[in-house]
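TICKET: design request
STATUS: open
ATTACHED STRUCTURE:
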């Protein structure tokens, strides 16, 4: 019979016993779960550095796993992988891993999760030279189902949005201002990159505005920072939303 597990998904540390209604102590609770043979899959979203020790201890104490969830859109594949892992048959999780890969849904964070749950070492993959990796907790990638202004899109998705905190997928000829940040998304891994090299790869000068036609980069999608609330997002594209309380000094490197 598969062992029971508790999957906890969060992005921060729990409240202290004196600060929650039932005065719960998480260490007491996880100890009780462990005595019942229930391990915890501690799924950490947004990779906040100060919260990482909590998720690691939670997993270690209970005999579970500490997993990182970079994109909320990956949650279904993450939960399915956990279910197959708990089924106890290595072949099932291996087959599901292949299914995710073949369907084009395999991101670097999911690859880390599959490796962690199967006890595999995962080789560190470096990004392209001069491209700066964007911290995993900075953006969420959202699908745009129909054309609409950024502010409307944000409101429909329950997002807190400020001008400059969103990046639209580049699809038509326009003038790209020098002050606007460019972000590239690797099509296979889902990794995000920025830096001056991103502009260079698109043929954009570093010190002046320039007119740019849609550029097909075989490996990357191109996103441009929007400083407008009314910029119209195009249907069937993607939108990078910068998490409202993102703090670059509090972002950990995924384990």
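STATUS: resolved
RESOLUTION: sequence designed for all positions
ATTACHED SEQUENCE:
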């Amino acid at each position: 019979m598969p062992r029971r597990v508790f999957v906890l998904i969060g992005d921060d540390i729990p409240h202290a016993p004196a600060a929650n209604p039932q005065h719960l102590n998480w260490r007491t609770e996880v100890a009780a779960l462990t005595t019942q043979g229930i391990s915890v899959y501690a799924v950490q979203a947004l990779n906040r550095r100060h919260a990482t020790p909590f998720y690691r201890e939670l997993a270690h104490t209970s005999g579970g796993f500490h997993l990182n969830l970079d994109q909320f859109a990956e949650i279904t594949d993450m939960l399915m992988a956990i279910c197959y892992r708990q089924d106890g048959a290595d072949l099932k999780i291996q087959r599901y891993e292949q299914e995710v890969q073949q369907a084009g849904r395999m991101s670097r964070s999911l690859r880390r999760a599959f490796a962690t749950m199967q006890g595999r070492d995962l080789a560190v993959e470096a990004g392209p030279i001069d491209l700066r990796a964007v911290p995993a907790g900075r953006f969420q990638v959202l699908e745009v189902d129909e054309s609409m202004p950024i502010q409307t899109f944000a409101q429909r998705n329950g997002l807190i949005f400020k001008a400059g905190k969103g990046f639209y997928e580049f699809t038509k000829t326009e003038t790209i201002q020098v002050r606007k940040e460019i972000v590239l998304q690797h099509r296979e891994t889902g990794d995000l990159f920025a830096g001056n090299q991103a502009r260079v790869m698109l043929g954009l000068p570093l010190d002046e505005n320039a007119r740019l036609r849609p550029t097909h980069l075989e490996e990357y999608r191109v996103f441009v920072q929007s400083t407008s609330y009314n910029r119209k997002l195009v249907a069937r594209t993607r939108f990078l939303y910068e998490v409202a309380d993102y703090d670059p000094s509090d972002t950990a490197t995924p384990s």
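CLOSING REMARK: The mean pLDDT is 90. The helical segments are 26-35, 52-62, 75-86, 90-102, 108-117, 150-156, 196-201.
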